[in-house]
Amino acid sequence: MSEKELIKQIRKLPSKAQQEAADFVEFLSQKYIQRPKDSSSSQEKSILESPFRGMWKDREDMQDSTKWVRELRKSRWAK
Q: Nearest CA to 33 among 42, 43, 25?
C-alpha cells in the first residue's frame, strides 16, 4: 500500500479510529525507529552511577541480605 493510499484509508475512518491508528503508529515508531542517544537517559547509565547504590550500606540488619529476607519471610508468613 502506498503512502497516499494509506492516508486515504485513515481519513475514511471515524475520528476515534484515526486516533487509535495514530497511537499505533507512535508505538511502532518507538519500537522500530532508533532515537538519538541521550546521555541523561536512566536506561543507559550504569547501575554503579545510580544514586540508590549503597543506600542501605550502614544498616546493621542488612549486612547479610539473604538472612534478612529469610527472617522477614519467617516473621510474615510463618504458621
A: 25
Encode 15-52: b = buried (16+ Cβ within 10 Å), e = exposed: eeeeeeeeeeeeeeeeeeeeeeeeeeeeeeeeeeeeee
Q: pTM of the entire structure?
A: 0.42
What are the pLDDT digits (tens) for 14-34?
Answer: 999 999 999 999 999 888 887
Separation CA 62–CA 56 (nearest Å)? 7
Residue 37 has what DSSP assignment? Answer: P
- C-alpha to C-alpha distance for 69 and 62, rounded to whole angstroms: 9
